[in-house]
């Protein structure tokens, strides 16, 4: 016993076996019995699987029949099941923030597989600490913020245009801004594109016409996002319009922001695979040549009868871009099928490391081979060498793994460097929105599978190639996902936020200002309160990180759900348990 | 560094292999090929040489000529690239490439050219001999009074010598390619007793065991499921055609020899058991049997190696068949009374086609009869312990 006086709280404690993940190394029955005698603990039970439907029902019954007002489940990491058991509490009519998850699997049973007694003692201590924290819990209600039914789309390429239409379709006003003088981005420059051979330029023209016909879409070119204030649901976006007669600024209230700023094409260095020599082109330049060719394929007046494509230029490098752009194989393969159709007889060699013609692109790959393209696989450590002959022609030296590693010299009229995508330099925007960048320089989502378009900044989403290299279809899918996410946030007219945020006790605040600079989210501002200045946390902006709490010399800041009193009680209990054990 | 010929595939496509671009080098064909072994892995490797564009390597590949076109690779190919037809195409291409007169290329790549060339030569030979014709005796079928045997022999000899010299020229070109690729030199062939022994063994393997004995073709059929009855097994049909052809050729030469030695004048009636005549009759039966089955099989496309037939395939079989058939009709005409005047004209056709067949040796499918043993010789060399 650790000498805690009962408070009259009624707490249920459940110690999970997790199959055997916990009970194989922790004496669960002993833990259960130890907790039975803990003050305020009404129920102490040890289910085989706490997360199973049956146990969840039992917990709800217990909460209702025994009028519990606190719940502790000792099981796995809160990452896995905190939400599960909060919902159990909610369904039983208990305040979900009166629930505490104690991790006795990752932090106990799995860590101490050779010390059953020690692991059991540690479990008891951890759970007692959890009970102590729960004992002091206050009922919390979600924060409700009103939201603006308007979304700012940054970037007017194919993704941005389609996203704006999607927003308008679900009844959210769209404000579309494009930095360049024209909408359409890369796709507007392309003729036939894979996988359906539709003209990129035509697709952009169609999208633009649709956007212009919609009253709920407002569009600006030569426009940049230069300022952002407010919080999720109610951002004030400052937009600078670059006009001939000087910059103009306008401020628009928006509920969410979708960033679709696209990519840059990898630019080879001078001399990289012969780049800089005549008739050595990047894939986008070659595509433009094919798209504009009439009659036979010619380059600067000379006929092009043979082409060598060098794949993975600037991609999958040990130093530099490590990633695969995945669109380039398919764009190059598609370009070769175009050449086959428009200029039959042009001999095409594809020098590759691996062909990544995923999904239906495989069919295009087949068509390319069956059209007479020859695919030559070179070893990773022996890239092809592009040279100019004495006669002024081009030749490519390559080791062909599929022809017994023979070293071949291929005389060709043109070399196409199949270049991938690189992140755009958008430093100002990145800093303004505080968007996280991955190690590859592209924007990062919260979760690559389950939250693919949201960022850690609430209400700011990413879509298209600013996030990672992808195809038009994949980019548009992401844009429409962002539309759905925006609708989920904005369509109700209000949003519920986790109430686990910092709160300033104005009585204690002496306005030393330390917290103002400690907050990474700019959630703390100064307000006038009862004839003095005090710090105030905007709960809609606060992330609940707790970073400001230790900075306050007066102990005026508390993090709801993890108050100083709760944490101190938990620590005291843990220490007391340790001493009893010793 | 080997320089690629970017036009090779376009060149090859003129000879067939319409589906080969579908090949993605998986190697299933090599895995299933009963002839592929450590020294000769094909067809994949050979197909790759074509796809990449290495004509010198392709023509120096003896594997082109060891293939019997059994069609298993085509059955197994996941891309329906018809590798078996590719091998046949590459042989056509090689025959055409070795032929400097371009007659083979013309016949292989244009149906019209093939028809015109075959007809013109047949008609030319027929007209030439017809122009020398003398008496059509009604007493007996005196064929050599109709066309003098000396004339036939002289024309035949000249033709054989010319064709032989040309054939040697092309064979040397081919053999030099094989030798370069395989690293065979004059010294490794003839430098010392051990070298001679290896050379002789390889020669015996090529001519004795394979060309005459058809050993690997015989083995090739052993795994057939279901097994064909003996009378229409692939190797037997092919072997009977080869043996029939060689038997008839031998009978003709022997008959001429007997004439030169004064033992039996050409055209003298002899009984059926007379050795030379017996050889000719049996060989003729073999040839007719073999060619008939070959033609039936090609017509019915009974195996995957025969999905595509070129006009020149039919031309070759047709010529053999006509020569065999007219030969027997002459036999019939010789023993039927009263004398059948058509016998003289059948004889004329027989002679004209036989001459044409000899002439076409280096220019048509028959060329495999001279290139294949060369390839097998190098194959046999590679098999010999060093």
Written overview of the protein:
The complex is a heterodimer of chains A (582) and B (386). With 582 residues, chain A is an alpha/beta fold. Chain A has four domains: 11-140, Rossmann fold; 150-262 and 424-493, 3-Layer(bba) Sandwich (FAD/NAD(P)-binding domain), CATH 3.50.50.60; 266-421, 3-Layer(bba) Sandwich (FAD/NAD(P)-binding domain); 498-559, Alpha-Beta Plaits (2-Layer Sandwich), CATH 3.30.70. Chain A contains 14 helices and 30 strands. In chain A, the strands form ten sheets. Chain A has a five-stranded parallel beta sheet with strand order 8-7-6-12-25, with helices on one face. In chain A, α5 packs antiparallel against α14. The longest helix of chain A is centred in the N-terminal third of the chain and has 20 residues, at 116-135. Chain B is mainly α and 386 residues long. Chain B has two domains: 8-98, Fumarate Reductase Iron-sulfur Protein, Chain B, domain 2 (Orthogonal Bundle), CATH 1.10.1060.10; 114-383, no CATH class. In chain B, 67% of the residues lie in helices and 1% in strands. Chain B has 19 helices and one strand. Chain B is globular, with a radius of gyration of 22 Å. The mean pLDDT of chain B is 89. Classes of the chains: A alpha/beta (582), B mainly alpha (386). The A-B interface holds A 305-306, 345, 347, 349, 366, 369-372, 374-376, 395, 397, 400, 402-404, 406-412 and B 1-4, 6-7, 9-10, 21-25, 45, 48-49, 51-54.
């Amino acid at each position: 016993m650790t000498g805690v006086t009962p408070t009259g709280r009624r707490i249920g404690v459940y110690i999970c076996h997790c199959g055997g993940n916990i009970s194989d190394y922790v004496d669960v029955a002993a833990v259960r019995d130890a907790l039975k005698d803990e003050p305020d603990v009404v129920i102490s039970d040890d289910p085989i699987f706490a997360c199973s439907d049956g146990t969840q029902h039992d917990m709800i019954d217990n909460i209702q029949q025994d009028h519990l007002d606190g719940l502790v489940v000792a099981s796995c990491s809160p990452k896995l099941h905190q939400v599960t058991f909060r919902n159990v509490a909610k369904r039983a009519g208990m305040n979900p923030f009166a629930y505490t998850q104690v991790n006795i699997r990752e932090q106990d049973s799995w860590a101490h597989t050779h010390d059953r007694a020690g692991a059991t003692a540690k479990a008891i201590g951890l759970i007692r600490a959890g009970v102590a924290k729960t004992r002091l819990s206050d009922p919390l209600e979600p924060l409700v913020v009103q939201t603006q039914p308007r979304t700012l789309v940054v970037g007017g390429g194919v993704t941005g245009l389609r996203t704006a239409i999607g927003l308008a379709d679900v009844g959210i006003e769209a404000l579309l801004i494009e930095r360049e003088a024209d909408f359409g981005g890369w796709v507007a420059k392309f003729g036939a594109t894979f996988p359906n051979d539709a003209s990129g330029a035509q697709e952009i023209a169609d999208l633009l016409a649709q956007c212009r016909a919609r009253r709920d879409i407002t569009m600006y070119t030569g426009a940049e996002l230069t300022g952002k204030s407010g919080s999720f649901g109610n951002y004030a976006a400052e937009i600078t319009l670059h006009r001939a007669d000087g910059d103009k600024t306008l401020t628009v209230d928006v509920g969410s922001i979708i960033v679709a700023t696209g990519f840059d094409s990898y630019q080879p260095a001078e001399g990289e695979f012969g780049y800089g020599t005549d008739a050595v082109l990047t894939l986008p330049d070659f595509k433009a040549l094919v798209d504009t060719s009439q009659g036979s394929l010619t380059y600067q007046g000379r006929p092009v009868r043979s082409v060598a494509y060098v794949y993975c230029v600037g991609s999958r490098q040990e130093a530099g871009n490590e990633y695969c752009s995945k669109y380039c194989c398919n764009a190059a393969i598609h370009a070769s099928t175009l050449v086959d159709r428009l200029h039959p007889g042009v001999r095409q060699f594809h020098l590759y490391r691996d062909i990544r013609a995923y999904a239906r692109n495989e069919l295009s790959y087949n068509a390319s081979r069956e059209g007479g393209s020859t695919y030559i696989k070179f070893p990773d450590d022996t890239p092809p060498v592009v040279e100019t002959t004495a006669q002024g022609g081009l030749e490519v030296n390559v080791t062909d793994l599929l022809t017994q590693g023979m070293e071949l010299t291929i005389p060709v009229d043109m070399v196409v460097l199949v270049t991938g995508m690189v992140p755009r330099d958008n430093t100002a925007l990145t800093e303004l929105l505080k968007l996280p960048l991955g190690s590859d320089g592209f924007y990062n989502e919260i979760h690559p599978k389950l939250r693919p378009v949201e960022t850690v900044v609430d209400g700011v989403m990413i879509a298209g190639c600013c996030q990672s290299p992808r195809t038009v279809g994949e980019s548009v899918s992401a844009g429409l996902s962002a539309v759905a996410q925006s609708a989920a946030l904005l369509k109700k007219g209000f949003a519920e936020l986790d109430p686990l945020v910092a709160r300033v006790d104005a009585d204690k605040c002496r306005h030393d200002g330390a917290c103002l600079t400690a907050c990474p989210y700019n959630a703390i501002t100064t307000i006038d309160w009862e004839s003095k200045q005090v710090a105030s946390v905007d709960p809609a902006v606060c992330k609940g990180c707790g970073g400001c709490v230790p900075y306050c010399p007066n102990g005026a800041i508390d993090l709801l759900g993890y108050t100083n009193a709760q944490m101190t009680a938990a620590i005291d209990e843990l220490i007391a348990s340790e001493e009893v054990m010793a | 560094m080997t320089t690629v010929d970017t036009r090779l595939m376009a060149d090859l496509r003129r000879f067939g292999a319409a589906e080969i671009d579908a090949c993605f080098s998986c190697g299933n064909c090599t895995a299933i090929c009963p002839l592929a072994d450590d020294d000769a892995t094909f067809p994949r490797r050979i197909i790759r040489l074509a796809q990449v564009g290495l004509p010198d390597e392709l023509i120096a590949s003896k594997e082109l000529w060891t293939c019997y076109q059994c069609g298993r690779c085509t059955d197994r190919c996941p891309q329906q690239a018809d590798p078996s037809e590719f091998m046949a195409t590459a042989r056509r291409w090689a025959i055409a490439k070795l032929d400097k007169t371009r007659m083979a290329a013309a016949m292989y790549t244009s149906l019209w050219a093939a028809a015109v060339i075959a007809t013109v030569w047949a008609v030319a030979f027929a007209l030439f001999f017809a122009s020398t014709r003398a008496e059509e005796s009604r007493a007996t079928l005196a064929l050599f009074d109709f066309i003098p045997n000396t004339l036939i022999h002289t024309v035949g000899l000249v033709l054989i010598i010319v064709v032989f010299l040309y054939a040697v020229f092309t064979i040397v070109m081919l053999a030099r390619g094989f030798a370069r690729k395989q690293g065979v030199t004059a010294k490794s062939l003839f430098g010392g007793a051990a070298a001679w022994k290896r050379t002789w063994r390889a020669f015996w393997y090529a001519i004795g065991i394979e060309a005459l004995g058809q050993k690997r073709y015989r083995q090739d059929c052993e795994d057939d499921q279901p097994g064909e009855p003996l009378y229409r097994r692939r190797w037997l049909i092919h072997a009977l055609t080869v043996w029939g052809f060689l038997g008839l050729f031998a009978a003709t030469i022997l008959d001429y020899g007997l004439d030169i030695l004064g033992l039996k004048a050409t055209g003298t009636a002899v009984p059926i058991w007379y050795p030379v005549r017996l050889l000719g009759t049996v060989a003729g039966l073999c040839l007719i049997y073999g060619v008939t089955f070959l033609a039936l099989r090609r017509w019915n496309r009974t195996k995957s190696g025969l999905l595509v037939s070129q006009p020149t395939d039919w031309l070759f079989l047709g010529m053999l068949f006509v020569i065999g058939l007219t030969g027997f009709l002459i036999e019939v005409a010789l023993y039927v009374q009263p004398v059948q005047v058509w016998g003289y004209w059948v004889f004329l056709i027989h002679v004209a086609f036989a001459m044409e067949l000899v002439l076409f040796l280096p220019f048509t499918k028959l060329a495999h009869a001279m290139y294949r043993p060369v390839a097998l010789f190098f194959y046999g060399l590679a098999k010999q312990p060093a």
